[in-house]
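so my prof wants the structure for this chain in the tokens format not the other one, which i didnt know existed until like an hour ago. anyway here's the sequence
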Amino acid sequence: MSLYDRVRDLPLTIEEVVLEPRSLEVSPQFTRTVTVVRVRGAGHEGLGEDVTYEADEAAAFQAAAPPALEGEWTLHALSQALASMDLFPAPPDWPPSRQYRRWAFESAALDLALRQAGQPLWRVLGIEPRPVDFVISTGIGEPPDVARVLDWAEAMPGIGFKVDATPSWTREVARALAEGAQVDVVDLKGHYTGKEVDPGADPALYAMVAEEFPGAWLEDPRVEARTRIALAGAEQRVTWDAPLHAADDIDAMPITPRTVNVKPSRLGSVQAVLDLYDRIARDGLGAYGGGQYEIGPGRGQIQYLASLFHPDAPNDTSPVAYHRPPRSGLPTSPMPVAASATGFRWGGEGN
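here's what i got, hopefully its the right format
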């Protein structure tokens, strides 16, 4: 039986859908804005989080009437209905945002269905949750400032990092990071063409990163003739994130991965997420979890999935407290199991 077959026929009753704005000032330059989706019925409430990044799109969504989902459903029937709905009042600037928003409703529906059934997700899937290893994910700015990472390493000794490499990195920058912190993943962000975070494809950067971080995963290179040469000998450390929207996308990767980054919001539906985990198990691949700067229940949900499928990996699922500047006294890795008694929720509404 597939993982999805274990949840697809869960019944759920929806009586009300509520959209709640939520924001967090991460720095004077950046306030994260999301939408918490609350799906209510039969005395229970399911929670999800829309991680769409454009603040104006979030505001338009929150001002519009929520989709008409009231009624009696199975989880699969609701998913099929969501697939045919346009959840954006106006087309999004970034096409993957459609999956992000759909995941907010799918995850809320799964949470509600499980709560109405009186069951936790782990029991329905038949997988015991385990404590979750996590890393801190960060860029180091332009121009590069390694103090962003080194301050965290000093405040939280032993913590691992996922860092975003850019063409402005020098070898001195890379070496300072490698010597001063435990870097588990280097994100090359090669699949954000045309976006603000697009760093291009720099063979010299790729070669330098592969050399200076010999034990790190190399995430999302843009594979071209020159970068393929730059990555020669490091192919087994290449992993994928942004191009993965379905299990079969693994077959289309220019370098076959040994491990992948699973971001539920990129996949969009409960079925796509669980089908990818089935594929990972079938092919004997590794996995680690990824985040989208969630500040509400979505953060707990990626921590929950990490606890079931890849608890010992460099999961980009740190608690929300890590979104703020470096300081000591924060929860340490691994985080203890905090699966709720019923539903698809980890701890409280935001972790």
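also thought this was worth mentioning. The longest strand covers residues 16-27.
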